[in-house]
Design a protein that fits this description.
One of its GO terms (biological process) is phosphoenolpyruvate-dependent sugar phosphotransferase system. It is found in: Cell membrane. GO terms for molecular function: protein-N(PI)-phosphohistidine-sugar phosphotransferase activity. Keywords: Cell membrane, Membrane, Sugar transport, Transmembrane, Transmembrane helix, Transport. With about 280 residues, the protein is an alpha/beta fold. It contains 10 helices and 11 strands. The strands form 2 sheets. It has an 8-stranded mixed barrel, surrounded by 5 helices. A two-stranded antiparallel sheet has the order 1-2. Helix 3 runs parallel beside helix 4. The longest helix is centred in the middle third of the chain and has 21 residues. It binds ligand C2E and magnesium ion (3 copies). The site of ligand C2E has 22 residues, from strand 4, helix 2 and strand 8. One magnesium ion binds next to loops.
Length: about 280
């Protein structure tokens, strides 16, 4: 199964899945499976992890997370599915499938009068190489009736570290339309702090690695600088991966109000997410 894989570097310079001695064979077979899975609706699906505002005590949105239930290998982790798609030109199809399914699900909420929820969707670096990305996003929003200001796209910190003009211009166009932009996994490489000023961004998601308390307390200093910079720039902070009450309290002391983590909820089915939102007192 998938646990036996090792990694190697693809022509694009990225890590890809590989079997020792049989370069790319397993990856090629799996990619063919992924191509077929994209044409069906019984293997690829999304789960939703609620995001909460603890000041309001409410769920304010959710992040859509990709799942691929392979018929023989079982559940494939999303970063593997995404890496596979990036190495085999399936990323555009996969990315649009995710966005389309997520927006279709969001329209279920809208039809039930729940118009305050923010839908977060991850975009991989390679999706920004698609010159029609913005047009495709617009078309999916139009088809599903989801408003631009209900959608947030999450891009990873590494994309901010090496800001590419094309990526920045796409993000700017999305933001001008009202789509929000979040930097995911923030704090992994703290050198990007200075890019926050130039990067078109609404939200910073503090990475799970910073949620864990370090022995020397250095993480707290990093969090302090991220929080004060974001406050100065008017950027929202979402703390990711909070699992315990102690972690929650620590970030409360840092004046953080938005959280996403197992302490509140693991990723759940679309139906379960709708139920949670509908159960909230208005
Ligand atoms: P991410 O975007 O940072 O998503 C958060 C990940 O952290 C999720 O893992 C979530 O289940 C996990 N998580 C949240 N709270 C906790 C916690 O309290 N404890 C622990 N241990 N984990 C927590 P998941 O679903 O396995 O996704 C992993 C990564 O795969 C995502 O990280 C994202 O980078 C990527 N990914 C997932 N779905 C997509 C997608 O549709 N498109 C793209 N391009 N990437 C995706
Ligand atoms: Mg994310
Ligand atoms: Mg993250
Ligand atoms: Mg993460």
């Amino acid at each position: 199964g998938i646990a036996a894989e090792s990694t190697s570097t693809s022509p694009s310079g990225r890590k890809c899945i590989d079997l020792p001695g049989q370069t790319g064979l397993f990856a090629r077979v799996l990619a063919a499976d992924l191509g077929r899975a994209l044409d069906r609706d019984d293997q690829i699906f999304l789960v939703y992890q609620p995001q909460v505002d603890v000041d309001l005590g409410r769920i304010v949105g959710a992040e859509a997370l990709l799942r691929w239930k392979h018929p023989t290998h079982g559940l494939i982790p999303p970063h593997i599915t995404v890496a596979l798609a990036e190495d085999t030109h399936l990323i555009s199809d996969l990315g649009m499938r995710v966005l389309s399914d997520a927006c279709m699900h969001h329209s279920v909420l809208l039809n039930q009068g729940e118009t305050d929820q923010i839908l977060s969707v991850n975009l991989s670096a390679q999706q920004f190489e698609d010159e029609f990305l913005v047009e495709k996003v617009v078309e999916i929003l139009r088809k599903t009736g989801v408003k631009t200001n209900m959608l947030k796209v999450e891009v990873t910190e590494s994309m901010v570290l090496t800001p590419d003009v094309k990526t920045i211009s796409i993000l700017k166009r999305l933001r001008e339309m009202g789509v929000r932009v979040a930097i995911d996994d923030f704090g992994m490489g703290h050198t990007s702090l200075r890019y926050l000023k130039e990067f078109p961004v609404d939200t910073v998601k503090i990475d799970r690695s910073l949620t864990l308390e370090s022995l020397d307390g250095i993480n707290d200093h990093i969090v302090t600088s991220i929080v004060s910079l974001c406050e100065a720039l008017g950027v929202q902070i979402i703390v990711e991966g909070v699992e315990t009450e102690e972690q929650l309290e620590r970030f409360r002391e840092h004046r953080c109000s938005f959280f996403q983590g197992y302490f509140f909820s693991k990723p759940i089915s679309g139906e379960a997410y709708v139920e949670l939102v509908r159960g909230q007192v208005k």
